[in-house]
Amino acid sequence: MKLRQKLVLLSTLSKGLMAAVLLLGLPWLVQTLTLNHTDQALRKELRRVQVRITTTGMAEFLPGAMGNGHVHYDLLQDEYIELRPITEAATGRDTVRDTVATLPRQQYGVLVDFRVLRHQLRHNGRTYMLEIGKSIASIKDMYSLLRTLAGYALLFVMLSTLLLELGVIGYLLRPVDQIVARLRAVRGPGPPLPPLRTSTSDFQYLDDTIQQMLHTIRTVFEQEREFIANASHELLTPISILQNRFENMLQAGNLPEEAELQLVSSQKILQRLTATLRTLLLISRVENEQYARTEPVAMAELLDEALEELEDRLLDRGLTVHRHLAAAPVVPKGNRSLLFTLLYNLLSNAAKYNEPGGSISIRGEVHANSRYELRIHNTGPPIPAEQLPHVFQRFRRIHTGSTEGHGLGLALVSTIADFHGLSLQIQSGEEGTVVSLQWQQGLVA
Amino acid sequence: MNVLIIEDDRALARELGLYLHNERYHCDFARTGREASEKLFVNEYDFVLLDLSLPDQDGLQLLAEIRQEHNQQASILILSARGTVDDRIKGLDLGADDYLPKPYSLLELVSRMQAITRRKHGVKQDVLEFGPFALNVSDRTLRHGETEVVITKKEFDLLHYLLLHRHKVLTRLQLSEHIWGNMISDSDERDSNFIDVHVKNLRRKLATHAAGDWIETVRGVGYRIHTTPEA
What we know:
A: alpha+beta, Heat Shock Protein 90, two-component regulatory system (chain B)
């Protein structure tokens, strides 16, 4: 899972969790808030009543005026004020603190719950109990209004912050995507990349480090390129001298026969040295990305060419070749001469390690996702299981038959396959050895 | 024919000169780009053999100069140990006539020079005859009278090369160098021993049409073709 997806998921989950907690706690919170609010409203009312008592006396609040002991001053009877005298004994104490409680009181002659503030006051030597009440039903209206409002607010905040966060995450993480894309693109030395545009210091550091590493890679490639060029020159020139000298000596034709045979034998050794050196240099050059891989390469043509080159070898050993290619195998971005070398070496091995009169079968099929698989099967004796994992390593010879090369052929094959992004596999058993090549036929994303 | 050998390694230049001298070429030598420029300015050459790694100048640069500045009609062959991929393409693009990576066989070099000469003078040697046989180079067939002798591609190349140098003994190495060139493979068929297999097959095929030993084995060193049958 990508970092961006994880962060988006985290953000969404945390928002969801927060919303759930808030929604669960909302009724209690709103209730508490409204009750507090009501209590404060009642206390404010009390102060107004006290002010009125001190200015106009308490006659208008005393029972009798309205007859039922309650003084409702709203039409719906949601609120009331009641003032009644009480005896000292009824209170039991000198001073009693104000209390606020939910108590049943009459409304239209029915008992309903009221939020009631009770306050004792002394006036002209008598003690009075002042009650100011507000019906719970009216509070509940406000409570539900508040709850709806809070719900909408919550939804709005959640959605807007979520959207904002997703946007910000996307923006902040864009450098990461770019860095990942850059790293994916690194297959060898390339031109220096422009610096990453980001204000996040971690990403800047990361980008700097990557740039440095790419620089190092470039330097190493350059050095190796130089080394290869020097090695080619320094090693191939002396070989050239020897080879030409041997050729001249033989051409003169004035040497005793024994000496000539010695020379021929030396020539062969020199030829082996040349072949090994050339293969090593080719492997290095391919690894050093000194070859272009730009053209679509039709593998069927190359198979034809390679088989034609090997015609005599096949005839000599009495080998038959079966060929069945589904569709036309094409490596979309390849190097023709390298791919030829690859197929030539595979087929040459298939001939070399075959038994006389055996067969080579070349099969190509298209798999899902337009992956092409090319299988080259030979009927030679099995490669020992313990050697199989090492056959693509340099200087590993396959010890099956009497013929032996310099042990670099399959290493070269593997290097060229890697260079083209072909997957290379080998299997071997009683029924022969199969080398399989797989690649993406269509354009690689 | 005049040849300018531009090569900074004395020993290599000496071997090259010796072989070409025996082939009746007249050789001149230059060890640096500067020296080469001077000689090219003064003399006319039929061939310039150019090594790309010169002490004072890049061979490709010199090549471009020869093609642009000098009024030289010389055919240019690049002989290089550098062997980078681009060198060959660049060299041919800059007007070189051929490219041989080191190490090469001297016989191959002379063959290429002869081919260039034939091309230059429009000499077409389409049919090479020996005894009752005719090797047709343009349609790549071997005929005995009216009958076609079926031979493989490699057998054809081998026979062609032997016929081009019909009075010489060609060593196995020279033959394998010509037939497999710079094919890079981990295989013994590049090995000069495999030449023997080809020669054996060719002899058998020739003998079914006209008795006699057409290809002589010389002292275990190499082979020579006979234009008249040996008993």
